[in-house]
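Appendix B, Record 12. Input sequence as logged:
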Amino acid sequence: MAFGRSLIELDRAVLWLEEALAAVMPRVEEISWREAIGRVAARQLASTADWPAGPVAGRDGFALVAEHTVGASLYAPAALPLGAGASALAYEIGLGEPVPAPCDSVVGPDEVSVDAGLARITSPVAPGSGVIPPGAELGRRTEIAASGRRLTAADCILAAAAGLSSIAVAAPPRVILVRCGGHAGADLTGPLLATELRYVGARAHAAVPAPGKDALASLLDTRPDLILLYGGSGWSPSDDAAEALARMGQCDWHGCAISPGASVLAGMAGGLPVVGMPGAPWHALAAFRLLLAPALDGVSNGGEGPRAGMFRLQNKVTSTLGLTEYVPVATRDGVARPLRRGGLLPPPGVTGAIRVADGDEGFARGTDVTVELL
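Logged structural output:
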């Protein structure tokens, strides 16, 4: 089957994959708040109880009844018995501890002098001073996070405080990795892609299809969220990934306006998205970072994503209009040095890469650029 050389724009390719993944990934899993940090909320998070449940101290100090300090002054301080017995009228208390009844206020240690078992206060205390009342920080049914939000540590702490024993999050994508031809470098590409998939929070499994012309069709029975082929995605007579996909279902597009990795292809088979990646390791890594990583992130990953930093270009970088390029660089002491392009393997010394958008012709020497670290 012959495919044309027209290349889909990167933005359209990412959108295609996001929509294809979203159609097969309505799955939800319940996990603890500790595990939910960085994951995507599948439903709105709302508190189920007031927090705090009762009045607690808003500072370290002494709990007391404000009425007992009426008229207190420097010359006639209120002298309140300190302790825990029945005669006590003031109690030492720590930040966040429940305020004992009938106390209604907490004064700081700088407002009290302690002498002979008495807490001496030299000015009247307002009722409620220094106390966090019930529900002041979280009221019942207070929204903590909207559905679709990537949960922060603060969100999850609030959920735990609100009494949520578990949190519903979007389940991570399940991806099957299959080699589909390619040269010897493809032996290195499989482990590379598996690592990248785990890095973005996907669950990756390598598979060896059963022998036969329609071998890949056997993978559909496992019902993953994505089948990721690697190797054989090019346009030469020996590259058969597009043919294999066409036998499974349909190839929706073959070729994306990126460099390297332009031979990436995608389609649907049995209602599941299938993406074919180049077999060359550096080409596959570029295609993954430019296409798959943002698409998976747009659905649900719970991974960290690539680290990035700002660096100053040591030399200018040129680029072809109409292509999004992934340019390898070596970074050191805040400087990014562009490395050779066009190889099958990552160039020696590479520590990251810069993206040049399809509407740019490159970057001048000395430009501050964002480098995705490898």
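The mean pLDDT is 90.
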